[in-house]
């Protein structure tokens, strides 16, 4: 598999292939069920979880309503603390800014903290085109990079791999990227972690430039926050001389006090921990402590357009916890690669089409990658109503798409019928009297027949409800 999502098929075709991969489904089923059970237990410990969830939603909504003001406040605070702020309208501009900063330091390699924003803009590929090698230091991202693979999960990018596959990847590929895997490497988690630690240590000690994202950006102080579980982030954020952080503009929060809410919501929703093992915070630069040069790249890349949609903008509340992926029956069976984006699962099905637009076949298919069961909304720590946004985006696809003439005609006919009660009643009576002639599946070729291949047409009652009501409830009683 190549290192880019470009050229991947639309979700139905990709899912048709991935659901036949029994090993993939076994890996995903085991991992997602384990994570979601642990998350449920961690959340149940807090009596005020519902109030925290509402607070997180309200803080995000208030921030989005005044995003311009908070971003300018953050820029002023970062600059006052010794950092430099760059604004990137799209992926190409962000990649150019980062590449120019690295080249200005005379470097040809960088170490990276796990970052969804840099995956979104394809930074690694853009740097490679400039002769710069980006080394992923998160364990799961390292597995993906060494395996010439693609991330398939927001929190655990290599969730589709089992221990045996990881051992084989380390044994075969580590030597090409640096220190080889130890001889006789087993698939014990401790041995795999030790192999990764030895491989990465030389890169941490050698690198002069690091690239990160951020989980949060506190506007009042200009403080950036990265939460992680392995310590690789702490190494990248403190050892190199130059730090470059690519951060989506929606990651800003107004005050330091607001951060307290999210540092309770995020770890329990993502890793099912009460708090993250490593929470790194930095504000600009400080002589003799950490990087001497700090650059913040504020990324738009479709976020302003998303903000303009009153229904769809709630996707920008997302704190990248991945709880929705772990409860989604579609994701569990299809896997992350089927979504054709760094953002898989339910949140990807609403975020990606808004960031990239609905023009391509891949993006137009994503709002349909759901059963609308609502499990994603129930676990979302910032109460994003993902089913509502999915239906909203489906409406946009239907309105903007070509074809579907039969569906449009059927909807127009239904609209007219529902607007004329007498005609509706007559149609119901005719349908009830001819119900013995109705097929359980449509015999005609085409999409309608395919739809009924997995569904039975509902059986009609002997008489319409309104006729039954008139006959049995003449006095209007209940």
Automatic annotation (TrEMBL):
Task: Cite the Lactate utilization protein B C-terminal domain residue spans from the record.
Answer: 399-472
Q: Which SUPFAM superfamilies match?
A: 4Fe-4S ferredoxins, NagB/RpiA/CoA transferase-like
One Pfam family linked to the record: LutB_C
Record keywords, A-Z = 4Fe-4S, Electron transport, Iron, Iron-sulfur, Metal-binding, Repeat, Transport
Q: Where is the LUD domain?
A: 73-298
InterPro entries from the UniProt entry = 4Fe4S_Fe-S-bd, 4Fe4S_Fe_S_CS, FTHF_cligase-like_sf, Helical_ferredxn, LUD_dom, LutB/LldF, LutB_C, NagB/RpiA_transferase-like
Region Disordered: start-end pairs: 438-478
> Taking every annotated instance into account, which residue ranges of this chain make up the domain 4Fe-4S ferredoxin-type?
315-384
Give the Basic and acidic residues compositional bias ranges: 464-478
Which superkingdom, per the lineage? Bacteria
Tell me which stretches of the chain form a coiled coil. none
Signal sequence coordinates: none
Name of protein: Lactate utilization protein B
Name the species this protein comes from: Kitasatospora paranensis
């Amino acid at each position: 598999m190549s290192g880019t999502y470009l050229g991947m098929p639309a979700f139905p075709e990709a899912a048709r292939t991935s659901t036949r991969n029994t090993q993939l489904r076994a890996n995903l089923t085991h991992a997602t069920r384990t994570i979601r059970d642990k998350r449920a237990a961690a959340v149940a410990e807090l009596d005020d979880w519902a109030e925290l969830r509402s607070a997180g939603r309200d803080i995000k909504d208030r921030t989005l309503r005044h995003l311009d003001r908070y971003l300018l406040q953050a820029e002023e605070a970062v600059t006052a603390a010794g950092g430099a702020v760059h604004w990137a309208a799209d992926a190409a501009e962000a990649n150019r800014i980062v590449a120019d900063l690295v080249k200005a330091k005379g470097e040809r390699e960088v170490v990276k903290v796990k970052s969804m924003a840099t995956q979104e803009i394809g930074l690694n590929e853009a740097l490679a085109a400039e002769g710069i090698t980006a080394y992923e230091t998160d364990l799961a991202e390292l597995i993906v990079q060494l395996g010439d693979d693609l991330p398939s999960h927001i929190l655990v990018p290599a969730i589709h791999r089992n221990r045996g596959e990881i051992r084989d990847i380390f044994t075969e590929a580590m030597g090409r990227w640096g220190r080889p895997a130890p001889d006789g490497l087993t698939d014990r988690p401790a041995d795999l972690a030790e192999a990764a630690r030895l491989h990465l240590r030389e890169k941490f000690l050698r690198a002069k430039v690091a690239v990160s994202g951020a989980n949060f950006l506190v506007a009042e102080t200009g403080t950036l926050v990265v939460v992680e579980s392995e310590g690789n982030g702490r190494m990248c954020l403190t050892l190199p001389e130059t730090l470059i952080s690519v951060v989506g503009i929606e990651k800003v929060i107004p005050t330091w006090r607001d951060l307290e809410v999210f540092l309770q919501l995020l770890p329990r929703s993502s890793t099912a921990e009460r708090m993250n093992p490593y929470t790194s915070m930095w504000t600009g630069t400080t002589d003799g402590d950490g990087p001497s040069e700090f650059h913040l790249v504020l990324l738009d890349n479709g976020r302003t357009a998303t903000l303009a949609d009153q229904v769809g903008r709630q996707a920008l509340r997302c704190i990248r916890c991945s709880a929705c992926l772990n409860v989604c029956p579609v994701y569990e069976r299809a896997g992350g690669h089927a979504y054709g984006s760094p953002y898989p699962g339910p949140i990807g099905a609403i975020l990606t089409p808004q960031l990239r637009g609905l023009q391509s076949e891949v993006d137009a298919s994503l709002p349909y990658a759901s059963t609308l069961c609502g499990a994603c909304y129930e676990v979302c720590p910032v109460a994003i109503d993902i089913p509502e946004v999915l239906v909203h985006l489906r409406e946009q696809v239907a309105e903007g798409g070509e074809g579907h003439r039969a569906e449009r005609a059927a909807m127009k006919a239904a609209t007219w019928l529902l607007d004329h009660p007498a005609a509706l009643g007559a149609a119901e009576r005719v349908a009830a009297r001819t119900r013995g002639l109705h097929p359980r599946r449509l015999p005609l070729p085409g999409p309608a027949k395919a739809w009924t291949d997995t569904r039975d047409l509902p059986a009609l009652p002997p008489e319409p409800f309104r006729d039954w009501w008139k006959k049995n409830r003449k006095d209007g009683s209940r």
